[in-house]
């Protein structure tokens, strides 16, 4: 048991096994006043890490993902027919594991699934360059491998696969395959080390041009949790613009997990970090630690991006109720004008 990730202990937690793709993280709580999103938005969800069959060197996870058309010209990935979301489900492995992904393309477009941070051969690259796309109405299996860090020549070491990565389409719309990201075909990929602490809740936040998860304020996701829960953010950058990710009232260690590994860990504390196209990072925080419950902003800190690219990190009371001041802040967020990119032309970004 010591080699497996362990869950942090809290008085109130949602078991991550029950958080399947497309499940809204706050679904167990009373509804929060919010404007309905135009497409389903995945704020939490993982492939259960106990799935698959054990083999030498790790576990092989067999996962089926359905690519589907969504309203407003968007597309999404899901773990079951009719459950596609933007972003897609969070996929997780431990270093040494393998994931065999069967992609079922239910659309009338060629598309694929391409990972960052893991090992794969040319047949699982997911790009037209390597003839590894999935044609309309077809099915294809992609195989991703992970590994632990290992000694190399001299005093050098090869890095392992552990990190907060992501996956996305690399075949829709052109010979290079650039349209899928713009249309919502992306999601988070986590590779953990043995013994990593697991969160109580997970949120995927993707800055994609001037949108968050292909939405703009006030329709952006409310990331919903309770005071004291261990919350994991997976931040991903896409599109053509440079961004920074800022979270109000919380800070994290600028390292692999966001948490210090001991009293002498030199990792600096940050609450704002670059999030540019193709980049990703993740971190864990204890919700409301030192500051209490409330409706805390998250947003891009490039100033003319901040109006449309903002949302709410809602930290409820321990019993799941919403503090009065938090509800007032949520109502304000949905009631005021958020501006947009066209109103700020001429300002640098």
Task: Give an account of the 3D structure.
- This protein is mainly beta and about 350 residues long.
- It is about 5% helix and about 35% strand.
- It has helices at about 180, 325-335; strands at about 5, 55, 60-70, 75-80, 90-95, 100-105, 115, 140-145, 150, 155-160, 165-170, 185-190, 195-200, 200-210, 210, 220-225, 230-240, 245, 250-255, 270, 270-275, 280-285, 295-300, 310-315.
- The strands form 7 sheets. Strands 2, 3, 4, 6 and 8 form a 5-stranded mixed β-sheet that branches. The protein has a 5-stranded mixed β-sheet with strand order 16-24-23-18-21. It has a 4-stranded mixed β-sheet with strand order 5-12-11-7, with no helix packed on it.
- Strand 2 and strand 3 (about 60-70) form a beta hairpin.
- The longest helix is centred in the C-terminal third of the chain and has 12 residues, at about 325-335.
Radius of gyration: 20 Å
Indicate the low-confidence ranges by residue numbers: 1-45, 48-55, 341-349
Q: Structural class of the helix and strand makeup?
A: mainly beta
Total E-strand runs? 24
Mean pLDDT over the residues: 86
Helix percentage range: under 10%
Shape: globular
Order of helices and strands: EEEEEEEEEEEHEEEEEEEEEEEEEH
- Span between termini: 48 Å
Let me know the largest β-sheet: 5 strands, mixed
Please indicate the percent range of residues in DSSP E strands (runs of 2 or more): 25-35%
User: Number of helical segments?
Assistant: 2
